[in-house]
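Full entry
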Amino acid sequence: MGKRLTDSYHGWNIEVDCGRNPGKFCSFDVTDPDGNSHHVPMGGDSVDRALERAREMIDLESSFMRDS
């Protein structure tokens, strides 16, 4: 069974799953406060790296929202 992690960051939900592709990259889903979700199939080679990338993606998306 793969590793799974659920976290929250700046009001967004993050779900990391390393069980979908055993021996491969962990995937993650991020869901914004409005309920819009994004799936990233190659999120990182570990749970920690996928979580870090999810947070980077949230920071980037938040920056785009502030600038528009």
